[in-house]
Write a structure and sequence with these properties.
The complex is a heterodimer of chains A (117) and B (112).
Chain A: E1 3-5, E2 10-14, E3 19-21, E4 24-26, E5 33-39, E6 46-52, E7 59-61, E8 64-69, E9 74-79, E10 88-95, E11 106-107, E12 111-116
Parallel strand pairs in A: 2-12
Antiparallel strand pairs in A: 1-4, 3-9, 5-6, 5-10, 7-8, 8-9, 10-11, 10-12
Chain B: E1 5-7, E2 10-13, E3 19-24, E4 31-37, E5 44-50, E6 65-69, E7 75-79, E8 88-95, E9 102-103, E10 107-111
Parallel strand pairs in B: 2-10
Antiparallel strand pairs in B: 1-3, 3-7, 4-5, 4-8, 6-7, 8-9, 8-10
Classes of the chains: A mainly beta (117), B mainly beta (112).
Amino acid sequence: AQKVTQAQTEISVVEKEDVTLDCVYETRDTTYYLFWYKQPPSGELVFLIRRNSFDEQNEISGRYSWNFQKSTSSFNFTITASQVVDSAVYFCALSEANYNQGGKLIFGQGTELSVKP
Amino acid sequence: GAGVSQSPSNKVTEKGKDVELRCDPISGHTALYWYRQRLGQGLEFLIYFQGNSAPDKSGLPSDRFSAERTGESVSTLTIQRTQQEDSAVYLCASSSGTGDAFFGQGTRLTVV
């Protein structure tokens, strides 16, 4: 069965600190996709990144970086030099569908990040 | 439209009444999803439509919940005989089939 675990319920950091949000997943499929979404206080979910199971290259986008390791079934998300605007709930999600068929997303419980000035 | 649109944004209903929630997906998106998010909780999958295929209803919590979608257009989620435990934000998302789902702002349902 598919499952996504975000063990960190809440994280609090001071501005400019680096912070890593953990995500561990379970799936029986060899083809799957992993996602991160941000949910700021306004409530709308914002898509951040999608990775497929065949691409283990780390990805960096500005202050955001993602570390995908199939050996440990993890897809961790790091924010470098955090800012107050990064305060939000972050969700990791898994889809077992093929790339061109879409598929339902299974979400973790979310990690609430609070960045204090 | 430019994004996923949900209506109403807020709904307060009396216990036992039926409610209908509406979702307008992004034009051209073949896949549409409904999720429920209780206060302080993660997203709970409800139902998924993909083109003209039979929907995946595996997440619907009871037979009081149903959803429809005509073609690749609007979807409605209906909750019959609402109960207080149904109070939550109901989120709709659509995707083009690439797997990148874009979410609406949700409908906050309060059952009193």
